[in-house]
Design brief:
Elements lengths: L1 H33 L2 H23 L8 H18 L8 H20 L4 H21 L5 H8 L3 H12 L11 E3 L5 E3 L12 H19 L3 H12 L4 H8 L3 H25 L1
Antiparallel strand pairs: 1-2
Helix pairs in contact: 1-2, 2-3, 2-4, 3-4, 5-6, 5-7, 5-11, 6-7, 7-11, 8-11, 9-11, 10-11
Amino acid sequence: MRAATLELERGEKTLETNVKAIELREVWRRYKTDGDRRARERLVLAYSPLVKYVAGRTAAGLPPHVEEADLISYGLVGLISAIERFEPSREIKFETYAIMRIKGAIIDELRAMDWVPRSVRSRAREVERANAKLEHSLQRAPTDKEMAAELKITVEELNESLLAISHSSIVALDELWSVSDSSGDQVSLMDTIEDHAAPDPAKALDVGDLKDRIAESIAKLPEREKLVIALYYYENLTLREIGEVLGVTESRVSQLHTKAVLRLRSRMQEDSFDG
């Protein structure tokens, strides 16, 4: 009896989901075909939870004085832009496209505020250069002790620097997926995907090559850093949740994430230089 009830509930939820999907498709049609402003407002309302989701994840890695409400405000601008630019005929889900636009809008606004001290950005560049140098000479990822020695600081000072840098590395891995458009502005590769009916083989090859390079770079990370990247970017866990999985503090996870991102950045830059 209970199994039958559960099956009925699942069927009802599936039906409800399908009905909502059909309704949204009609709203998209009214907006894109007729330019219905009320349909646009309906889309903003329907997809607004995406903004809260992205803002919440971003706020977790920022200083306490950065209000989540402000991030939501910045993200709404990205959502509206995504709705205006999205083509329903594309072979991608709107949610995937919108999240990239929302993240970009939040990051652009934070960077415009220039809330990261210049000394922190300088330290980040020093850590990247030290990591690249040691990886080249050691042919492996350097340890914290080796990194600290190269930077002429203690391991404790290195960890403090990584924690400070983590606040300036907002979803930094996503930057590896950005390219410059004709005007020189940075745009997500997601925005460059063309209609499925008219593929560009050259662009597809470039995107595929970039994916391979990133995957290869991630595979070379130390195991704990690789796990943090997988849990954060692929499983969508928060830093706190990852800390619970690894049995460490949220601050330690933030340090591991920052080290991983800096390693990936230096490797991608080195590959680009070699190319």
